[in-house]
Inverse folding.
């Protein structure tokens, strides 16, 4: 058997933390049972394919959970809006379509964004406000640098300053609003008095 | 959570059709309370060796079934002296109902296939 179990155990670390935390011990025990019953080669044949198929799948599913997808969504909206604003500044007006896309995306996904904001997590409020403060500092720093460095014509450098600066500005505003809207402490769930559904 | 819009908690319809892996695990659990490794063995037997679940596929499927309320983990070990690290699972009432409904659905499909594939048809 040798190093089979430690190696499999190490590979299970590639699964998302939540899955690993819940089933990590079961996976390793299951692998050990397979080795005992069917031999090392058969165990690796089965679990090798399983690892290749399930690691990317569970990783993707983990990314697509509501909270994380709301974060991804917020970043996408911020970048699109920043691109649109930057296009205004640089005079490349077709880039305004990015701003329109950001608006459409924010409107279409307003439910998911609202649910993510209302998450009753006491630490989340602090984290969001801290992120807003950090992005605010980044924005002010970039703005000062932009004012002192900008030349008389638009170059890649100015465009990058504009995109990163406006992203930071949108991010700071978004995180500030989300932080202020996040409950200070977990609010009692209305379902607490009703039977669980599962 | 998924029944907040007026659907009865015991209605199997929203779960159908079941993904094959979930159906295989539910069928295995109709035998009673089983731990993960035993479920894998039952699935392999019942499929004639065609379905060979790896550990992560199996536990991912179990997680989905538990999250959906179709299976549940036992708080205690059914057999004294069994490995305390093993976790046992069993069907819930809803799981049994969904498993039966999926079996009926597949049986109907098999009937249609048999009729249409009879010699002289189509």
């Amino acid at each position: 058997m040798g190093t089979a179990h430690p190696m499999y155990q190490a590979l299970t670390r590639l699964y998302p933390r939540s899955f690993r935390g819940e089933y990590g011990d079961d996976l390793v025990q299951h692998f050990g049972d397979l080795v005992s019953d069917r031999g090392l080669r058969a165990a690796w044949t089965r679990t090798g394919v399983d690892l290749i198929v399930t690691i990317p799948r569970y990783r993707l599913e983990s990314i697509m959970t509501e909270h994380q997808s709301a974060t991804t969504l917020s970043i996408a909206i911020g970048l699109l809006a920043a691109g649109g604003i930057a296009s205004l500044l640089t005079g490349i007006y077709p880039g305004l379509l990015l701003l329109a896309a950001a608006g459409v995306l924010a409107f279409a996904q307003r439910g998911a964004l609202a649910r993510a904001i209302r998450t009753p997590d006491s630490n989340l409020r602090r984290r969001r406000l801290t992120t807003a403060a950090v992005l605010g500092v980044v924005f002010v720093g970039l703005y000062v640098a932009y004012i002192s460095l900008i030349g008389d014509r638009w170059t890649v450098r100015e465009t990058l300053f504009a995109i990163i600066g406006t992203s930071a500005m949108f991010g700071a505003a978004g995180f500030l609003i989300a932080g202020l809207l996040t409950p200070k402490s977990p609010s009692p769930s209305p379902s607490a008095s009703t039977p669980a559904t599962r | 959570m998924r029944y907040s819009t007026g659907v009865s908690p015991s209605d199997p319809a929203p779960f159908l059709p079941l993904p094959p892996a979930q159906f295989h695990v539910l069928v295995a659990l109709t035998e009673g309370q089983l731990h993960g490794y035993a479920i894998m063995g039952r699935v392999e037997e019942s499929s004639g060796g065609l379905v060979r679940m790896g550990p992560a596929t199996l536990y991912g499927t179990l997680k989905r079934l538990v999250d959906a309320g179709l299976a549940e983990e036992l708080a205690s070990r059914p057999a004294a002296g069994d490995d305390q690290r093993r976790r046992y699972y069993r069907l819930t009432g809803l799981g049994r109902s969904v498993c039966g409904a999926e079996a009926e659905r597949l049986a109907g499909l098999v009937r249609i296939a048999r009729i249409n594939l009879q010699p002289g048809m189509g």
Remarks:
- Chain B touches chain A at residues 1-3, 9, 36-37, 40, 52-60, 63, 66-69, 85-87 (CB under 8 Å).
- Strands of chain B lie at 34-35, 71-73, 88-91.
- Chain B has a mean pLDDT of 87.
- The two ends of chain B are 46 Å apart (CA to CA).
